[in-house]
Write a structure and sequence with these properties.
Elements: H1 13-20, H2 34-55, E1 69-73, H3 81-86, E2 90-95, H4 98-110, E3 123-128, E4 139-145, H5 154-163, E5 165-176, H6 180-193, H7 209-218, E6 222-223, E7 227-232, E8 236-240, E9 246-252
Parallel strand pairs: 1-2, 1-4, 2-3, 4-5
Antiparallel strand pairs: 5-9, 6-9, 7-8, 7-9
Length: 256
């Protein structure tokens, strides 16, 4: 098991630089991050269902994360962090690219969601740098969307995710699967036609559900049943039993 108390560099500088170049367009639904805008509602659907199941919440409750602390790892410019704040959480977003954090802060301030000092219910604050350098109490909810495939040391990174998770906490991870389908559609297709910026993905760095299960087990967590994020002409991006393109999954500590 990786010792998460030891500061480990998991960020590839070239990856941070790539996403930093996209920062100015992050909130443009028709810009370089258009695909993120399309997939975000699908992620949020899964997350909302997961938190209701995990904490036994009321599905009609508008602020199911009220009184809970959330950490969004690899937050970009805040596309997920802001909705988590609107669900009532005290959100901390952390990202490797300083340019992303600058854009995230400006956007959250304009939306009235930026925490002045310390996080507060329904607000978000942002931090730039390595996850291992984040000094904070454990979080009730940790989210990590499309980040695992960009880190240099996956076991160390997943150990850090677990380290920042509260004993009764919930971790939600999404990542592309390493399949022929993802190579053709996500890397070859989406990047070729400009739906995803060229150079965003390296197919060899994708993790299969079996590999992610091993990483989570090594970090002392129990993985839930993954759901696919699939695409079809009729449904567009949607939750599915088909894991071949991309998948999203929960993890938590074993029940004692």
């Amino acid at each position: 098991m990786v010792d998460a108390t030891v500061a480990t560099v998991t960020i590839r500088p070239q990856e941070a630089e790539h996403f930093a170049r996209l920062a100015k367009d992050w909130w443009d639904p028709n810009g370089s991050s258009a695909m993120l805008h399309r997939v975000n509602p699908v992620r949020l659907q899964f997350i909302r269902e997961a938190i209701d199941l995990h904490w036994g919440g009321d599905i009609a409750e508008g602020h199911p994360l009220a009184g809970r602390r959330a950490l969004d790892v690899g937050c970009g410019a805040g596309l997920l962090a802001e909705p988590l704040a609107r669900l009532g959480a005290e959100v901390t977003g952390i990202d490797a690219a300083a340019e992303n954090i600058a854009v995230a802060r400006r956007h959250a301030e304009g939306a009235g969601l930026l925490a002045a000092d310390q996080p507060a219910t329904g607000s978000v604050r942002y931090r730039h740098g390595e996850l291992s350098a984040l000094d904070a109490p454990p979080f009730d909810l940790v989210t990590c969307m499309e980040v695992l495939e960009h880190v240099a040391d996956k076991p160390a990174f997943v150990a850090q995710l677990a380290h920042h998770l509260a004993p009764d906490g919930l971790l939600v991870i999404s990542t592309p699967n390493r399949t022929v389908t993802s190579r053709m559609l996500l890397v070859g297709g989406a990047e070729m036609v400009g739906m995803v910026p060229r150079g965003t993905h390296r197919w060899s760095d994708f993790a299969t559900p079996e590999e992610l299960h091993g990483l989570l087990t090594g970090a002392g967590l129990v993985m839930g049943n993954p759901r696919g994020i699939a695409w079809s002409p009729m449904q567009r991006l949607h939750l599915s039993s088909d894991l071949s393109l991309n998948y999203i999954v929960t993890a938590q500590r074993p029940v004692r």
